[in-house]
Amino acid sequence: MFEPSYIRLFESGELSKRAGILKQMLADCNICPKDCKVNRLENKIAACYSGFNPVVSSYCVHYGEEPTLVGSKEDRNENGVGNIFFGNCNLRCVYCQNYEVSQNHKLEIKNEVTIERLAEIMLELQSKNVNAIGFVSPTHFVPQIVLALELAIPMGLKLPLVYNTNCYDSVEVIKLLNGIIDVYLPDVKYSENEYGYKYSKIKNYVEHSRAALIEMHRQLGSNIVLENGLLRRGLIIRHLILPNDLAGSYETLKFISELDNKIHLSIMSQYYPTHKALTIDLLSRNIREREYEKVLDWMDELNLENGCMQEFESENYYRPDFKDRVEPFKR
Ligand code: SF4
Hints:
The two termini are 32 Å apart. Helices cover 34% and strands 15% of the residues. Helix 2 (14-25) packs antiparallel against helix 7. Strands 1, 2, 3, 4, 5, 6, 7, 8 and 9 form a 9-stranded mixed sheet that branches. The radius of gyration is 19 Å and the shape is globular. It contains 13 helices and 9 strands. Helix 12 (289-301) links the parallel strand 8 (264-268) and strand 9 (306-309). The chain has helices at 6-12, 14-25, 67-70, 99-102, 105-109, 115-126, 142-152, 171-176, 193-200, 205-220, 249-259, 289-301, 320-324; strands at residues 56-62, 81-86, 132-136, 161-165, 183-186, 225-227, 230-240, 264-268, 306-309. The chain is an alpha/beta fold. The protein has a single domain, classed as Alpha-Beta Barrel (TIM Barrel). Bound molecules: iron/sulfur cluster. The site of iron/sulfur cluster has 14 residues, from loops.
């Protein structure tokens, strides 16, 4: 039976030590590469609009992640991931599908919770028999997550933890997560800083996301640990294809192939224009099938061996069955 390594870190006192270091970083916040240097312990707010308390927009059992996380009928473990969706964000993507919670800071103040409540949420999700706990957009709340883990572990938390990130993460913070996070699920968005700035208001996305990826790979390598078909430990790199190749997919794949051509990849085709993208010509349509197939060809060309591809989603993609399979969001 798989036991997450955070249990050992807790028992040795290492988790508590890391929680202390991370909490102290909030005093002069450099939790992400934005390096705002505000005192979030005193609720000073900067680029991510977040003070000390974590903001949880919603949490639910989620069936929209990769199949090895969601589980399957054949293996009788199609139990989904217990996702915790954090509010606010350190990026400002013009096409963000969650913009109502990631970029609506006045609303999100109402969704602040205490560290104790965050721990309770993890345990509540675990009690629903989910396969893992997923932290979605966790970057700006890593210290609070680790503080909550310190409370949740002695109360019985024992599921693998999934770090589902936009990959604009600080290497120092990712190093402190070594052994705490079981599954890294970074979405690598751009290979050119020009587009990172234009569409996500980040000037140095490429170098920071790549440095974070190198550290995630250093920790977990390209081998994945499966138990009864479920992903228990490993790195899966996501990449959302953008229309007109604004994501620079080839260069991203090339970087990954040079790092390790056995890394597991999840190539995502479900982009649809929403939020400000509806008014930006180059982003105002879904991707075409040929754009998707081109990316798959590049994977072959670059000898990337472990792709987890979805079926190409149609031009009129609204994920109808997705809605049916997600339990109602809870505040
Ligand atoms: S976590 Fe927020 S306050 Fe801290 S450096 Fe990043 S954007 Fe700035």
